[in-house]
């Protein structure tokens, strides 16, 4: 659902095609990293302890946040 809303507003942000591709790639990488981190933790992690999956999940959240900040700046600036 987030991706549908994101890409419908990204075209209104006034960015060039290259920046739109970059923002879309950040969002895609973030979604894949965040959901993939849960599975990595399931396979490698232990309950109550940090694992590579935890790091991957957090990195995914940061990538999603960066993509959303790019969108927000574009909508504030050009919207």
Quick summary of this structure?
The protein has helices at residues 2-10, 17-44, 52-78. The protein is mainly alpha-helical. It has one domain (14-78).
Count of DSSP H/I helices: 3
Distance separating the two termini: 22 Å
* Helix content percent band: over 70%
How do the SSEs run, as a string of H and E?
Answer: HHH
Please tally the β strands and state the result: 0
Structural class: mainly alpha
Average the pLDDT over all residues and give the rounded result: 92
User: What's the number of domains?
Assistant: 1
Radius of gyration: 15 Å
- Which spans of ≥5 residues are poorly predicted at pLDDT below 50? none
If you had to describe this structure to a student in words, what would you say it looks like?
The chain contains 3 helices and no strands. It is 81% helix and 0% strand. It is an all-alpha fold and 79 residues long. The chain has one domain (14-78). Helix 2 (17-44) runs antiparallel to helix 3. The radius of gyration is 15 Å and the shape is elongated. The chain has helices at residues 2-10, 17-44, 52-78.
List the helices and strands and how they pair.
Blueprint: H1 2-10, H2 17-44, H3 52-78
Helix pairs in contact: 2-3
Main attributes of the structure:
79 residues; mainly alpha; 3 helices; 81% helix; elongated
